[in-house]
Amino acid sequence: MACRALGEGRVTLVVRKGGIHERQGGLFALEHERFALLPTHLHQDADRLLPAYAGDYLAGVAVDPEPGRHVVGLWAEAARIWKVTDPGRLAALGDELMWTAGELASRFRYRDQPWLFVIALRIQRLPVPVSIPDHPSYAGCRSWIPLRDQIPLAGSVPVLEDAAFATRLARIAAVLD
Q1: 13 DSSP β-pair partners
Q2: Sign (positive/negative) of CA torsion 153, 159, 164, 166?
Q3: Extended beta strands in 1-102, E state
Q4: What is the pLDDT of residues 137-148, one digit of tens each?
Q5: What distance separates the 2 farthest-apart alpha carbons in the chain?
Q6: Which residues pair with 25 in a beta bridge?
Q7: pTM (2 d.p.)
Q8: Residue 22 confidence (pLDDT)
Q9: pLDDT in tens, 54-80
Q10: Burial status of residue 77 (CB atoms within 10 A of its CB: 0-12, 13-18, 19 or more)
């Protein structure tokens, strides 16, 4: 669902603290400025999403479309990253984040460390989605998964025009800087 919202340009932000399998004691680190978005079917819970995302978004991802494979149609470039220590700033982002206030509060408090990284992503759409086989190394709650297959990026196009992305990024920065 997050990949769909990013791919439609409805959101440009993701939040991270670190998954249970992350290196560095579970803490997130921006290991790559550019990366493919690997759609998964974990954490698909309508109660965690704002109402605008809960209904049709979850219906579209309720069933794995190609079991044993991942269809990659998007890649991202990190445009900005903020370490947010004030949960009020997260709330001020409104629907730039697809998560409910309760979900953001839970992530904010995870591991008794009161902060989250907010990452603005410049999303690019591949000219043709690529289907890659699943692999056991892709399982688990992780931010970074080294792919065994190359994803060709040539011919990709941004999901938001430059001016629209710059305007949203400036609005977000006004809240988080």
Answers
A1: 120
A2: negative
A3: 13-16, 34-36, 69-84
A4: 887 766 677 888
A5: 43
A6: none
A7: 0.85
A8: 45
A9: 776 556 555 556 778 888 999 999 999
A10: middle
